[in-house]
Specification:
Elements: E1 4-5, E2 8-9, H1 15-25, H2 32-43, E3 50-52, H3 53-70, H4 81-90, H5 96-107, H6 111-114, E4 117-118, E5 121-122, E6 128-131, E7 138-141, H7 143-150, H8 154-173, E8 180-183, E9 188-191, H9 202-209, E10 231-234, H10 239-242, E11 255-258, H11 260-264, E12 273-274, H12 276-291, H13 297-304, H14 308-323, E13 329-330
Parallel strand pairs: 12-13
Antiparallel strand pairs: 1-2, 3-7, 4-5, 6-7, 8-9, 10-11
């Protein structure tokens, strides 16, 4: 059953959402995760439960080799024995059998362990089970993957390919992949707007928060260049705007003051979806500013809706869009006395 928090309804990500989260938000130091995702989808026809590494190596190395022909850089590292073997195969200096053996030996070393990691840990849905230490080393395909493939794989494969193109282009140009996006309408990679400076909003936002972090209630300051100065944080991660999923996340309705630990510390929120309780807290903040005829009143109404019901529906839609793409949800431990 969905959880209800102050009339906000939780959303359970679908299997498609979880795979999308792996592709969009999984950390990439090489393109292996994309190749593995495409290979798994191709092999999930319901005719097998366990895929030996030797069988998985075929489509996996094929996808890597295909991309190497147009994008020579497929990792952040300057050297890779596996990628070198793929290059030799493309040049005709290595046989298909030798490439398969090298793929089994080196190609899966990290990607199988890291595939399901999004944000601070593994997603709850598994698309395969690692059985490399069994008598027949391979991966066991899960029901989730088979059911996903049975629904059709064209959209998932297109999303994987688009994300792969974006990452390898960023690597080839030595720029952050956060500065380019894939335009589904044109099929082109396009620059995205840079994050704008938001520090000028500190004082206006602090009138409600009264010197406490929006998430953990730790004391914060709005004075620049002092220890403990607050970050202006996007409650719904700005990365969703970069990816073209949700527009206008720089607007005041989505901005809160956060301590540096919650925003960008070792266990910070970064690009994760906010816990539903924070969405309800944001609504209370916004409605307080509207009802108190705060100078931001008209801005908030223009950005989120003319009445309470419209504004509630707006935030519910933003939450659903966020969790359907970034499936990892973040919540901070309470460190101070709740003051709002």
């Amino acid at each position: 059953m969905p959880t209800v928090v102050d009339r906000f309804i939780s959303v359970t990500p679908t299997t498609e959402n979880y795979l999308r989260g792996v592709v969009l938000f999984g950390r990439n130091v090489a393109s292996y995760k994309f190749a593995l995702a495409k290979s798994l989808l191709e092999l999930s026809d319901g005719t097998r439960e366990v895929v030996p590494l030797g069988e998985l190596a075929g489509p996996y190395s094929r996808h890597i080799c295909d991309h190497l022909r147009s994008a020579p850089r497929q990792a952040t590292s300057s050297s890779s024995q596996f990628l070198e073997a793929c290059r030799k195969f493309n040049d005709g200096d290595l046989s298909a059998e030798a490439l398969r053996d090298e793929t089994v030996r080196r190609g899966f070393n990290n990607v199988i362990d890291a595939f399901h990691v999004v944000g601070p840990g593994d997603i709850p849905v598994r698309f395969f089970v690692d059985e490399r230490r069994s008598s027949t080393p391979g991966v066991r395909l899960t029901d989730a993957l088979v059911e996903l493939a049975a629904k059709g794989t064209s959209q998932a494969l297109a999303e994987i390919e688009a994300r792969w193109r974006l990452v390898e282009t960023a690597w080839s140009l030595d720029i952050s992949r956060s500065l380019i996006a894939f335009d589904e309408g044109t099929g082109l990679l396009v620059p995205v707007a840079r994050r704008v400076a938001l520090t000028s909003a500190r004082d206006a936002l602090n009138g409600y928060q009264k010197g406490a972090c929006f998430y953990c209630y730790n004391p914060i300051s709005t004075v620049s260049n002092v220890v403990g100065v607050a970050d202006v944080d996007h409650l719904f991660p700005w990365r969703l705007q970069q990816l073209g999923i949700v527009p206008n996340l720089d607007q005041v309705w989505n901005l809160v003051l956060s301590c540096q630990g919650c925003n960008r510390g070792a266990r910070g929120k970064f690009d994760l979806t906010p816990d539903l309780g924070y969405v309800a807290r944001l609504e209370r903040r916004n409605e307080y500013l509207v009802a108190s005829h705060h100078p931001l009143r008209e801005t908030l109404i223009a950005q989120t809706g003319d009445d309470t019901a419209d504004r509630h529906g707006f935030l519910q839609a933003m939450y659903e869009a966020s969790v359907s793409h970034q499936v990892a949800v973040w919540k901070a431990p309470v460190a101070g006395d709740p003051t709002f």
